[in-house]
Amino acid sequence: MSSENHHEALSRTVTEKLRNGQVVTIRPLDRADIDLEREFITGLSPESRHFRFLGGGGAPSEKQLQQLTDVDHDKREAFIALIEQDGQESEIGVSRYALDANGKAAECAVVIGDDWQTQGLGTLLLNRLIETARARGIDQLYSIDSAVNTRLRDVAVAMGWTCRAEPKDPTLVVYTLDLTAT
């Protein structure tokens, strides 16, 4: 694949249809999305916020929001899912990864707005992340999550991720996906 096609595959905007028929746009996130991200995180239920930030509740700080939207599309990647409502764009989901120092593995996270869970959006966002990580030569994606997040476990296992307990903290599990396997 030429580097131009390679870049296009990573930066393209796609439209998908969810199980409920809603059309959603998925594109790379950038710094200009800070207000969308603020609204999205603030609108999450306490449970969803807890699952995403593992204990960090409340409204996100400006510093947190800047970190979440500081995506260089190389070591840090993120994709945002948007719908149009009353002529306004609303964020309903986001997936992201951050590359480890070794450059071979990346920690990832996906969060879906409460009203949009179980519509297939998490799978779409994860697949986009996996496709991008593979194209960049990343060998492994992993995610550290709450052990009681059974909805995530069902999706992860269905998609071929392995799940193991986090030895240092029994309330957490680690999901891993080997990207080198065909």
Shape: globular
C-alpha end-to-end distance = 18 Å
Strand order of the biggest β-sheet: 1-2-3-4-5-6-8-7
* Stretches with pLDDT under 50, minimum 5 residues: 1-5
CATH architecture: 3-Layer(aba) Sandwich
The CATH top-level class label: Alpha Beta
Largest sheet: 8 strands, mixed
Radius of gyration, CA atoms, in whole angstroms? 16 Å
Number of strands: 8
Tally of structural domains: 1
Series of H and E elements: HEEHHHEEEHEHEE
Can you give the helix content as a percent range? 25-40%
Derived from helix and strand composition plus strand pairing, the structural class reads alpha+beta
* Number of helices, counting only DSSP H or I runs of 4 residues or more: 6
What fold name goes in the CATH topology slot?
Aminopeptidase
> What's the CATH superfamily, by name?
Gcn5-related N-acetyltransferase (GNAT)
Q: What is the average per-residue confidence, as pLDDT, rounded to a whole number?
A: 88
Report the sheet-strand fraction. Answer: 25-35%
Task: Describe this entry's structure for a reader.
This protein is an alpha+beta fold and 182 residues long. The protein has one domain: Gcn5-related N-acetyltransferase (GNAT) (Aminopeptidase, 3-Layer(aba) Sandwich), CATH 3.40.630.30. The chain is built from 6 helices and 8 strands; from the N terminus they run H-E-E-H-H-H-E-E-E-H-E-H-E-E. It has an 8-stranded mixed sheet, with helices on both faces. The longest helix is centred in the last third of the chain and has 15 residues, at 121-135. It is globular.
Structure at a glance:
The chain has helices at residues 3-11, 34-43, 46-53, 62-69, 121-135, 150-158, and strands at residues 14-17, 23-28, 76-85, 88-99, 105-112, 140-146, 162-165, 172-178. It is α+β, with helices and mostly antiparallel strands.
